[in-house]
Amino acid sequence: MKVFLTGANGYIGGTIAHLLVKKGYQVSGLIRKPELAAKLEAQGIRAVVGDIDHIPLLKQEAQAADAVIHTASVANSLLIDTFIEALKGTGKTLIHTSGSSIVGNRDKGERSDFIHTEDFPIDPVAERILWIDLNNRVLRSAKAGIRSIVIVPSMVYGEGYGIHKESIQLPFLWKISKEKGIGVHVEKGESIWSNVHVVDTAQLYVDALERAVPGSLFYVENGQASFKEIARAMSVKLGKGDHTAAITTEEAIGIWGEDIAYYGLGANSRCSAEKARTMLGWQPIYNSIFEHI
Fold first, then answer.
1. What Cα–Cα distance (Å) separates residue 76 from each residue in 72, 82, 198?
2. Is the per-residue pLDDT at 163 higher than 90?
3. Domain 2-161+195-222+273-286, classified CATH 3.40.50.720, yes or no
4. What is the DSSP pairing of strand 67-70 with strand 46-49?
């Protein structure tokens, strides 16, 4: 099977590509920088040099593939419409990557006990309306002869196989914690995110590629932790015991911007991947974000 993958040198996309090659798939990967092509080719991935705004190229590659896996950009409506138009009526697979911050609110470090499942409707904040709209467009394309699937990763951690080997949330927190010499969290740090290792995340993509039914959406998680627990683990790593330090939301905005401060590091994003375990037979093997820290 031929698979066209956007974000092939990225953290999640590169790890998916590595696993697909290992399993014998023919993988073509979109990259923006020509100088990275040789590194991609060395991994057995055909490099496609371009960007997500190069519509004719994307349409051509999608039509030549048996499946398209999109990991490069969450909120690009033109790109999603291009893939849907290219694959309409073919029965080919389109997998779109979303993110579990779609369930977040401006919690400012306060805890929520609600755990989302795929059947529960989401009332998104304004900053995530486009994300939800694109998820729905992809899912609805199942009615247009596309085997469409949406994957919603939670906080992804661990070392991946892409050229870029780190995620966003943990590295951001580790950097500021190192600067301050103690583990840092936003406000009380009681808000909780589900989490999952990048290798297990990539495995779920492959499981979905091989077994999911059209119009499926899957959350991806294998554990959860509050930001205070994460900060405490970083403090231990820094030799500060279990002491932590809080920063205000305003400070966090000054460091990372509003989106990360509110929805990446201050909100709750709790979800269950029981559907993936049951329907796809997904069996994650990594279960401790604290071991990684």
1. 9, 10, 23
2. no
3. yes
4. unpaired
